[in-house]
From TrEMBL:
Residues the record lists as N6-(pyridoxal phosphate)lysine modifications: K211
UniProt xrefs under SUPFAM superfamilies: PLP-dependent transferases (SSF53383)
Pathway per the UniProt entry: Amino-acid biosynthesis; L-histidine biosynthesis; L-histidine from 5-phospho-alpha-D-ribose 1-diphosphate: step 7/9
The protein, known as: Histidinol-phosphate aminotransferase
GO biological-process terms attached to the record: L-histidine biosynthetic process
Source organism: Rhodanobacter glycinis
GO molecular function: histidinol-phosphate transaminase activity; pyridoxal phosphate binding
Quaternary organization: Homodimer.
InterPro entries: Aminotrans_II_pyridoxalP_BS, Aminotransferase_I/II_large, HisP_aminotrans, PyrdxlP-dep_Trfase, PyrdxlP-dep_Trfase_major, PyrdxlP-dep_Trfase_small
PROSITE patterns cross-referenced by the UniProt entry: AA_TRANSFER_CLASS_2
């Protein structure tokens, strides 16, 4: 069975939109796309008056080399969110098909499914937030076309082993596409599973430059999958997903010195993750610091409201994850610079002075 047999039949046969840029190969005088002939004010040679290449070759080559895949196995878009949305729209018929997720997990999988009116099958992570492969496999029905696995998990922080991913892909071959979200994999001890794509055509991997590569504002995400899946998604992808300034920023980040800089910062984050985790675990009022393979620590508090107010009073914003299953007492704290992390520890050590005004008249912990 070909993996495309899992996709919506109407998507497999549809005629894709052909953009003016796709039809302009070899041209010199570009008068086919109704663009302005003049660059905008402040343009520094980026050519922003012209539509960008839908899939820039230089960026594809750099990312393919980085991720260890072939160019035809790579789709680049606006963050991982776009790839998630494209996958759901391509594989799930509204009102008939479904995705499977393991809460607590990244919320966009379910959001994209519900926008498409696809079902959402939930198989909760175990008590230690580990993936229960047997439970996932038991829950896959013929309606489930996509199984999303977040590794390392967001918001809990735990990784999923390569063996578990391979077992899912092997067992679900011909039944469902296994989509592994590796947004945080650069911070983890165990590497990517992208090399398994050649072995399993029903395996897809999501990667991003938003986290380790410090390009959250550029919105560059990638889908790594079989060439057939990539070609299918390109049919329904908007014609110009990548702004030229974002492409330029990504190419700089992926340069030799850019990669050296990332390696240095990754080492700092890993060291801080261990150090700050130990310091947090010793603080009064902290119940548990969940093990993390990402660039954040999810912390259980005896009183998460009080901890949140302490941080807020110090001007520190963290993520309230208490809406997630079994995280009703937790806050997620992104690891910053060593100085920023020290501020977090200091803020949680200080008592909250309720009702007392500071010298400038503000009330600590009170929102403006």
């Amino acid at each position: 069975m070909n993996v495309l047999d899992l996709a919506r039949p109407e998507i497999r046969v549809m005629q894709a939109y052909s953009s003016a840029r796709m039809e302009s190969a070899g041209g010199q005088l570009m008068l086919n796309a109704n663009e302005s002939a003049w660059a905008p004010v402040g343009d520094t040679g980026q050519g922003c008056n012209r539509y960008p290449d839908p899939q820039p070759v230089a960026l594809l080559d750099a990312l393919a080399l980085l991720y260890g895949v072939r160019r035809e196995q790579l789709l680049v878009g606006r963050g991982s969110d776009e790839a998630i949305d494209l996958l759901v729209r391509a594989f799930c018929r509204a009102g008939e098909d479904a995705i499977l997720i393991q809460p607590p997990t990244f919320g966009m999988y379910a959001v994209c499914a519900r926008i498409q009116n696809a079902g959402v099958v939930e198989v909760p992570l175990g008590d230690d937030f580990a993936l229960d492969v047997d439970a996932v496999l038991a829950a896959v029905t013929p309606a489930v076309k996509l199984v999303f696995v977040c590794r390392p998990n967001n918001p809990a922080g735990q990784d999923v082993s390569r063996a578990d991913i391979e077992r899912l892909a092997q067992t679900l071959s011909g039944r469902a596409l296994v989509v592994v979200d590796e947004a945080y994999v650069e911070f983890a001890d165990e590497g990517s599973v992208a090399d398994l794509i050649d072995q399993y055509d029903n395996l897809a991997v999501l990667r991003t430059l938003s986290k380790a590569w410090a390009l959250a504002g550029a919105r560059i995400g990638s889908l790594l999958a079989s060439a057939e899946v990539v070609a299918l998604l390109r049919r329904i992808m908007p014609p110009y997903p990548l702004p030229q300034p974002c492409v330029d920023a990504a190419l700089i980040a992926l340069s030799g010195w850019g990669q050296a800089n990332v390696r240095q910062r990754l080492a700092i984050v890993r060291k801080q993750r261990k150090l700050i985790g130990e310091q947090l675990s010793r603080l009064p009022g902290v119940r548990e610091v969940l093990p993390s393979q990402a660039n954040f620590l999810t912390v259980r508090f005896e009183d998460a409201d009080d901890a949140g107010r302490r941080l807020e009073a110090a001007g520190i914003v963290v993520r309230d994850v208490r809406r997630h299953p079994r995280l009703g007492d937790a806050l997620r704290i992104t690891l910053g610079t060593p100085e920023e992390n020290a501020r977090v520890i200091g803020a949680l050590k200080r008592p909250l002075l309720r009702g007392r005004r500071t010298a400038d008249g503000a009330i600590p912990g009170k929102c403006a």
